[in-house]
Known about the structure:
By secondary structure, the chain is an alpha/beta fold. It is built from ten helices and eight strands. The radius of gyration is 17 Å and the shape is globular. It folds into two domains: 6-17 and 92-210, Rossmann fold (3-Layer(aba) Sandwich), CATH 3.40.50.1000; 19-88. Helix 9 (169-178) links the parallel strand 6 (162-166) and strand 7. The strands form two sheets. The chain has a six-stranded parallel beta sheet with strand order 5-4-1-6-7-8, with helices on both faces. Strands 2-3 form a two-stranded antiparallel ribbon.
Amino acid sequence: MKKIEAILFDLDGTLWDSADGVLKTWNMVIAKHPECKRELLTAEELGSYFGLPMKEIGNRMFSNLSEEERDVMMGECCKLENDYLAEHGGILFPKLAETLAILHKDYKLFIVSNCQSGYIESFIKAHKMEEYFDDTQCWGDNMVPKGENNKLIMQRNGVTRAVYVGDTSGDEQSARVAGIPFVFAAYGFGEAVAPDYTIKAFEELPAVMASM
């Protein structure tokens, strides 16, 4: 059987934690717009949104607004967030860069996320990760669900055997849609149903990959 060629990564809860920066910037936008008539976000509420497509987050955050108004608010939130994170970064999970360097010797590395356009680029820029990732794809670029984007990025890069690494049941489902194994990042924000593999720290991934 042909060996695994690539690893597809979720971003939030798998590679980094950007919650503090997101909370700060989104609340700055909410405070600027009292007409949206909502309280400032709590960390708990924000956490419940991670992993969802941005459109769904807007629907939940600003349910009292029209679709057009929600889109305007989310656009403002996302732009300020991207700019802030590109400069200040987030919290990387332990030994991230060192482990990516090891993995990139043997595998193509991709990021596939449900985030807005520019968010992955902010992560890469802030933490100087350009050398590790061969390609990225996000919901904001084509409004396509993560499972389909997993298939798209594999097709675009000529990959037939890959795995998806993520921390939520949504990530797990996206791997099933793409027909690839799922590695559950148990240190992240969510839960999994029946992962093929589990890691309790990012640095465990090379050993798991070697076992496949």
